[in-house]
Amino acid sequence: MSYDYLLTLCIILGSTKVFSILSGRLHLPQVVGSLLAGLLLGPAVLGILAPSEFLTMLAELGVIVIMFNAGMGTSIQELKESGKAGFIVAMCGVLVPLALGTGLMYCFDWGDGAVGKLTLLQSLFLGTVLTATSVSITVETLREIGKLSTKVGNVILAAALIDDVLGLVCLTIVSALAGGSVSIPVVLCKIVLFFVFAVVMAVLAHKFYLWYDRRVADRNLHRFPVSAFALCLFMAWAAEVLFGVADIIGAFAAGLIISSTPKDDYIKSKINPLSYMLLTPVFFANIGLKITMPQMDLMLVAFTVLLVLTAILSKLIGCGLGAKLCGFTTRQGIQTGMGMACRGEVALIVAEKGAAMGIMPEAVFGPIIIMVVCCSVFTPVLLKNAFRGESPYEGLEESSLLDDYEMARRMDMVAAQMMRHEKKLRQKKPGAQG
Amino acid sequence: MSYDYLLTLCIILGSTKVFSILSGRLHLPQVVGSLLAGLLLGPAVLGILAPSEFLTMLAELGVIVIMFNAGMGTSIQELKESGKAGFIVAMCGVLVPLALGTGLMYCFDWGDGAVGKLTLLQSLFLGTVLTATSVSITVETLREIGKLSTKVGNVILAAALIDDVLGLVCLTIVSALAGGSVSIPVVLCKIVLFFVFAVVMAVLAHKFYLWYDRRVADRNLHRFPVSAFALCLFMAWAAEVLFGVADIIGAFAAGLIISSTPKDDYIKSKINPLSYMLLTPVFFANIGLKITMPQMDLMLVAFTVLLVLTAILSKLIGCGLGAKLCGFTTRQGIQTGMGMACRGEVALIVAEKGAAMGIMPEAVFGPIIIMVVCCSVFTPVLLKNAFRGESPYEGLEESSLLDDYEMARRMDMVAAQMMRHEKKLRQKKPGAQG
User: Fold this and answer.
1) What ipTM describes this predicted complex?
2) Closest Cα of chain B to A197: distance in Å?
3) Considering the entire predicted model, what is its pTM?
């Protein structure tokens, strides 16, 4: 038995952490740093690490945990409360990128290259990749300029929540379509059955956790996160194998289900380390490892530039229009659109899914990664620009959504402080006895 | 790509949890339940799951995390404070089982069976398997009968800590001997070099974490557990590949190093979920999966019975003598010996290691598992018996070691209660606004 995988994991953990710290210094999202670490270590540059089956399976598990986390972060209660404006902004912000992305892909003339003319389904898939917003970098930026607790900030937080769900509905439909069955009724039937399955699981899980929470109170707490993770794995498997929609949708649905059970915060706090200690770094590094420098012909460069423009402009137009429809000023519409333009891990996950299902050409993967990186680099700059000249107190507004983004971090800091305190007490004790 | 591994992991998590809850009801350690789950699901009984390379690598990672945890639970400070009595009990409790186990293995006449006459090195390995005490079930039993805070309880806690370290010193020597190099100087050189390496890493890590803790205080906390886990993986790899001692020793050493850094409690609290949410269940289930029902010939049955007797009696004699040497009464000596007789996951890990290194016959693995299960079943009964007739207030004594066993659980409960409270506050807020 070879022990090299231990060193491989050590290098992945170390390098993704160092690079994400560095990218944080440059005000870039950690995703960019982690991707870069994989790219540098992989065959494309240094060639220290190579993709392996073990890494691929860990990365796939990482994807499932990321989507499970995303689902847990989307409480149904908050979805209901997020209001009409959030819904309209999200809806327009999904439909416009979907349409423009599909259009770009379908109309782009690859010439005599390896890619060839794409089918409508393949084009639809690229549209789906463009739908998912990543809001974390926007939140950071708005916090930095003191504009997070504003009308625009609140509508962005609400829309980003709904955006995720709508994007996954698109993916459900497209992946069911890609399942090989040509007849639309079969596809619809699969989706409806999956939906029924998810609702049944939700009811069962809700009842079970309510009963169990009363029964065990705060003893034997481990059972909650372990059973929740088992539910997530089961629903991911069932979504993929039994219903022919993507596994990540099952994982997201499991997260949604867990988010309305009594111990959801505790479960989140235990899934989190599983994610950031092992699975998420492996996922990002693995993407970087798989990149080989393609022959950057003129066509691919042109496509990449068009893709980046489409990605940013489509969200700007879609969300901006949505905001205007809800009575926002043009300036606020532009601010909202820029705030929603960032893409992140979900876009990468959907793209990977498409590659795994064989409906997305490998050559398009590189441009998508570049698109994600460019969006993260450009949108904070553009967003700050869109707020330039506003007084610091303009449009301040309270929000309950905001608390959630703060909560996890605060809990963790409190726990660390408690441990520090507890430790001091223990260290004093032997001295007091002696 | 096949998605069956998702279902496999789901079944492993679910079944090990259910069986360990059931075994808890029967006052057996969770290890027994988890092993049983793997055994039932595996080829030996139901044949639902089969060992795979992915599971084996996850299980190996689980072993490393278990040993890392064990190392973190062994603070050098506490080792120093654990006193002469703990050290003598542990020393005798390691030497006697080592000698008797080696003797049993070397002298046992397998007849014409598949095993054949064992070499001294192979026999030494079985002796090493018998050295490691698992104290968790003893702690539970003593707590149940109210005898944990006694002189005997305290010496057991102290001796169990030292016991782990001494057992791993044995394993270091034996595994270095088994590395193929026949010359004793080379083996000694390897061990000394590894020791020097560990000390250098300890000094570097200590300085780094002290500096870093002052620098970042309680922000960006994730970096502590991630870097600690990377250190663990690196030291496991280095121990195995560079120094030819087992990877688990590197992981344990890394844990020891981390245990004396400022954020050790926080790091523990994040390594824990990684362990119990995924890696440890896979490790136990994987052991169960690998068991095939052997032709239970008379020889193997006889060997198993002798092994169980040797395991329990050798600890009883060794630790009992050690306790007598420290001025304990005969009754207290028997209590101490019975309290140290339980074996657990470390015995299984060492045995697996031996099988992987090819110096332990596969046929012996079954008897070792049965030995671990029998020890866990018999010792609580025998231990309670050894305390029968004592007044409930006899020999009560305070201990600072005890706090550690309670601490992690208490912290977790407090965190869960805080989350519950925080949630109520948040749920009230929208109502107050509306």
Assistant:
1) 0.82
2) 17
3) 0.83
